[in-house]
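Narrative of activities, Objective 1.

The group set out to show that a structural description can be obtained from nothing but a protein's sequence at a throughput compatible with the screening campaign. Below is one input-output pair from the validation batch, recorded exactly as produced.
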Amino acid sequence: MTKSRNILPPRKVWAEEEIELLKRRYPNERAESIAEALGCKVHIVYTQAKKLGIKKSSAFKSSAASGRLDGVRGADTRFKKGNIPWTKGTHFVAGGRSAETRFKPGIVPHNIVPVGTTVMATQGYLKTKVAEPNKWRWTHRLKWEEVNGPIPRGMMLVFKDGPRTNCEPSNLELITRKQHIDRHTIHNLPPELRQVIQLTGALQRRINNHGK
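Output recorded for this entry:
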């Protein structure tokens, strides 16, 4: 089993004594030293501590071991107040042929399309460009609102005949979310098909849980 095959290593199972060690040492020690003692990655220590609600103590946070800045620590290597950067007053000038290959002011990219253009989007829906520079809306919603006005809050706009490319208002209808659920519930299917879907779901859950 290798990482290149997208196979994840098994999750760490915490023994009771490891949890006690974490509770005892985490508030006042660096996570790196605890991870080394447990033989695991540092992020696993952080994750388990968060899960158990264990936090660093105030004494540890104010100590040098925490690595936090306190106004004094690291002061020798900081820029001093009033320091003048060596680049002050200079301007970057690109060399070579960079000026020849830059976009010129006012240039229009080749893939820009005019307002009103309709293209195929994701999952079979159409979208229409309604404003510059790059504002789009779903075509079926746009056509519905041109005839019927805004879609009421909580309502869904669906296609009567199935295909999502037929965006004529006569092929669209408003339904509630409950109506949408009722139309697509598994209980509307034949018994044998319901059983196949349920068994497929159970099998998929077993596959997902395998190795956890």
